[in-house]
Specification:
With about 240 residues, the chain is an alpha+beta fold. It has 3 domains: about 60 residues, Orthogonal Bundle (Arc Repressor Mutant, subunit A); about 50 residues; about 90 residues, Roll (SH3 type barrels), CATH 2.30.30. The chain is about 40% helix and about 20% strand. The chain has 8 helices and 7 strands. It has a 5-stranded antiparallel beta sheet. Strand 3 and strand 4 form a beta hairpin. Helix 2 crosses helix 3. The longest helix is centred in the first third of the chain and has 19 residues. Keywords: Ligase. This is Bifunctional ligase/repressor BirA. Its EC number is 6.3.4.15. It is an enzyme of class 6 (ligase).
Length: about 240
Amino acid sequence: MKDQDMKRISRLTAILTQLQTKQLITSTSLAEKFGVSVRTIYRDIRALEKAGVPILTEEGKGYSLMEGYKIPPIMFSESEANALITVEQLVLKNRDSSLIKEYIKAINKIKAVLRYSTREKTELIAKRVAVSPVISGVNTSNSLMLIQNALTNFQALTITYQSEGANKTTERLIEPFAFYYSLQENWTLIAYCRLRKDYRMFRLDRILKIDQTQLKFTPHTLTVQEYLAEKEKKFKTPDIPVS
């Protein structure tokens, strides 16, 4: 098989992966990613369609896969598998136990589809990666996954929050917006607080109680970058929760 044909097969597989992981993708972004012309991407999309892949085209917007269509499991390369195993050691030191629990379930599914030879090598890597004991492995929260689910479903939450520097708690109705991670404080939730009528940062380890509600909210138009840029105007660092 010619080298050019191999490159195209590799590109078609990568395009399938992109379609599987993103709701909508443009021909321009695909052309930039793979270093080819937009016309080449058009030909690739037609080739996938002829092969039976149900690709939907939205004029002026991009491509997506038909709802419910699933691509067969993709085999991981040795380097990709090693990267996931290395990150596993860092995740196990995370302070949110719900993240650790879900990551372990996900990584076990990935390990199950690895080729035997690759699996042996990843097991060796896992034994040869150590994380500094200076990084605390103590879990201080267990709500990250619950909040992520509320964020993606635009569902409001009620929380009992302990303010910093004071032994005072308040009840809040919040709209999850984004997460901020720092080595000092670990996970912090950025949310619109209906009590303060503004965006606030809440440390997950200070959330004493959290409950889901049936209240839906309109997706926020503000971006994380815009929020952090505005916060940096007021403070030297965004690592200062103001709630």
